[in-house]
């Protein structure tokens, strides 16, 4: 997407310094350089969306409007909208250090449900998939996964258990369309367990392992807290 440098409220040379400084901030936060370029692209798209407004003069409602219009686009996945949100979070919280910057993290932007016609035409393995989560998922849910690792290590679980639990959590989040954790509930956990039993045909022990991983994650995140009461939905 091409943008007009002069529309950002400052000259080309100043804007170039902002882009470079922001990119350095993103990389310093542990984001791979290739992904950092996407973060920079989202920031430029936001700047274009704001037209003649200076980015330093924007407010959180501007960010919310931008993310909302992204959610209305059928060609964007939930993880892409989350990536756009994270890019603006880093820009306003870490780079500009504005008072309201941290509030971006709490914004909940819901992706519109796909039309029923799409659901009928889309192959089942495209609607309900949990295999091969993208690397982007690790970046989006970095804090949650780090808390899970810490919890497991404090309890002196084996490295193998840590890796297995993290993999189940990653699969569940991918299966749930990479929605914000705050939107997930015990209902989504139940649906995922049913999927493992009826579609993936996993064993009872494997399904129980997935449930244990999600229960542990629920305890440290404060989300989908009743998932420990979720009944097992096993194949006879």
CATH topology of the largest domain: DNA polymerase, domain 1
Q: Compute the separation of the termini in Å.
A: 53 Å
Structural shape: elongated
What is the total tally of β strands? 0
Instruction: Report helical residue fraction.
Output: 55-70%
Would you identify the CATH H-level superfamily of the largest domain? Tyrosine recombinase, N-terminal domain
List the total number of helices. 11
Q: Strand fraction band?
A: under 5%
Count of discrete domains: 2
CATH level-1 class of the largest domain: Mainly Alpha
- Could you give the order of the helices and strands? HHHHHHHHHHH
Structural class: mainly alpha
- Provide the gyration radius in Å: 20 Å
The low-confidence runs, each spanning 5 or more residues with pLDDT under 50, are 1-11, 114-128, 231-236
What can you see in these coordinates?
By secondary structure, the chain is mostly helical. It has two domains: 1-111, DNA polymerase, domain 1; 124-236, DNA polymerase, domain 1, CATH 1.10.150.130. Helices cover 60% and strands 0% of the residues. It is built from eleven helices and no strands. The longest helix has 18 residues, at 33-50. Residues 1-11, 114-128 and 231-236 have low confidence and may be disordered.
Which key features would you list for this structure?
DNA polymerase, domain 1, disordered C terminus, disordered N terminus, 11 helices
């Amino acid at each position: 997407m091409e943008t007009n440098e002069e529309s950002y409220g400052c000259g080309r040379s100043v804007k170039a310094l902002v882009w470079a400084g922001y990119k350095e901030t993103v990389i310093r936060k542990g984001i791979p350089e290739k992904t950092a370029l996407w973060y920079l692209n989202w920031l430029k798209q936001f700047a274009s969306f704001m037209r003649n407004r200076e980015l330093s003069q924007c407010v959180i409602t501007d960010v919310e409007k931008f993310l909302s219009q992204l959610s209305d686009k059928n060609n964007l996945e939930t993880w892409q909208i989350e990536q756009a949100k994270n890019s603006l979070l880093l820009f306003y919280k870490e780079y500009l250090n504005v008072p309201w910057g941290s509030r971006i993290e709490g914004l909940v932007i819901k992706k519109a449900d796909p039309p029923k016609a799409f659901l009928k035409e889309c192959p089942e393995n495209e609607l309900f998939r949990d295999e091969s989560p993208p690397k982007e998922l690790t970046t989006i849910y970095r804090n949650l996964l780090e808390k899970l690792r810490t919890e497991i290590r404090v309890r002196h679980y084996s490295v193998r258990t840590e890796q297995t639990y993290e993999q189940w959590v990653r699969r569940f989040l991918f299966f749930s369309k990479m929605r914000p954790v705050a939107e997930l509930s015990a209902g989504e956990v139940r649906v995922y367990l049913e999927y493992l039993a009826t579609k993936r045909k996993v064993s009872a022990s494997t399904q129980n392992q997935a449930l244990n991983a999600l229960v542990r994650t629920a305890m440290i995140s404060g989300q989908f807290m009743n998932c420990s009461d979720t009944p097992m939905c096993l194949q006879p």
